[in-house]
Amino acid sequence: MNKVNLKRFGPGIWAAMGIQAIRITGMSILFSYLSLYLHLQRHLEMTLVGLIILISGLISGDSAWLAARWRTDSGTGGYLSSSRLRKR
């Protein structure tokens, strides 16, 4: 069984991963209470609340895909292809 060498990634990658994990955890907790708030306090139907969350997720995914595509097409490469992260 091959072991994965995680030490090859710099501290910037680990910081970005930690921040992303905290952000995703916070958003998953927030959506539960946001749905209840919009339904009980703002009197929106739960179908509409679900549709709002679905559309925001689709926009988020599409914008991330477009940003990655733009970086690749413009020749600047992605985050992992930075010259500071390559082995010397």
Q: What proportion of the residues is helical, as a percent range? A: 55-70%
Strand content: under 5%
Shape: elongated
Total domains = 1
Question: Biggest sheet, open or closed, and with what strands and sense?
Answer: none
Q: Report the total helices.
A: 2
Q: Terminal Cα separation, in Å?
A: 27 Å
Average pLDDT metric: 82
Structural class: mainly alpha
What pattern of helices and strands is seen along the backbone? Answer: HH
Q: Please mark out the parts with pLDDT under 50 across 5 or more consecutive residues, or reply none.
A: 83-88
- Whole-angstrom Rg: 19 Å
Would you report the number of β strands? 0
List the SSEs and their pairings.
Layout (H helix, E strand, L loop, with lengths): L10 H30 L5 H28 L15
General description of the model:
The chain is an all-alpha fold and 88 residues long. It has one domain (10-75). It is 66% helix and 0% strand. The chain contains 2 helices and no strands. α1 packs antiparallel against α2 (46-73). The longest helix is centred in the first third of the chain and has 30 residues, at 11-40.
Overview features:
66% helix, 88 residues, 2 helices, single chain, mainly alpha
A few lines on this structure:
It is built from two helices and no strands.
